[in-house]
What we know:
- The protein is built from eight helices and eight strands.
- It has helices at residues 17-28, 39-42, 130-144, 155-158, 174-201, 207-227, 231-238, 240-251, and strands spanning 33-34, 43-48, 55-66, 69-78, 83-91, 99-107, 110-118, 166-171.
- Strands 1, 2, 3, 4, 5, 6, 7 and 8 form an eight-stranded antiparallel β-sheet that branches.
- The longest helix is centred in the C-terminal third of the chain and has 28 residues, at 174-201.
Amino acid sequence: MKDIKNSVFYKDDWRWSHFLKYIVSKLGEYNAVEKYLPSKYVFKESTYGPKKFKNQVQLFNWSVHNNRMNLARAVCINSPSYSVLNFLIIPNSKYNIPFLGVDFVTLPHLHLIVLDFQPSLFPLEKQFDNDLLMQIINLKNDCHQIVPRAEKMSSEVEKFFSPGMIWSKLPINKQSEDFIAGQIYKSFTDYFDLYLKILVDSNSVTTNLQNEIVKGQQSYLEYRKEKDPARPMLTKLFGKEFTEELINNVLFAAK
């Protein structure tokens, strides 16, 4: 299996390399082991664009698991026009823990930033006690004192996020680079450390609650399979067949 540490995604000139290195390092402290994936999903190179101006693009899918995480996976994309770190933790349904969702996406004219403890149970009170909710809301507020917040999401999309979501759209400029290297990186590490602490400290739930959690997780994953916002970009870069296989069989598969 290819080693992500020897890839372009561990080099400093890839925008999200410091975030990825933090993910890999921290999960290594929690006895996370790499999960088998067919090689065609682990690493892929392709070209896109008009015939006279073809651009190269690389994709790496790094996946691990342990007794508390069904899946923790980072999908990384590198090209002249697109730079993506999409990270998701699907917790073991024995624990009443939300997903951890990270979407850091650089498009030709924009950075999209999403960071959240994404609920799998509704209403939120079933999964977030007041203390946890206030902690992530405070982390969000600290971030958005410096990093501008994007417009409100639609109600259909918003229900899959918590009140502690960090959500920003940033222009491609020096100030945005400073935001990413500074406050956004700090907020990311704070969110990630808090999530791992909660995951480790949680007690197993009753069978009835676990069944609810399984249904909630499946609802979210099915929604992402049907309406993943990255589908048009992935199709442009890697083609429809590979994109549909990746989304349905790898990115949002619970097991």
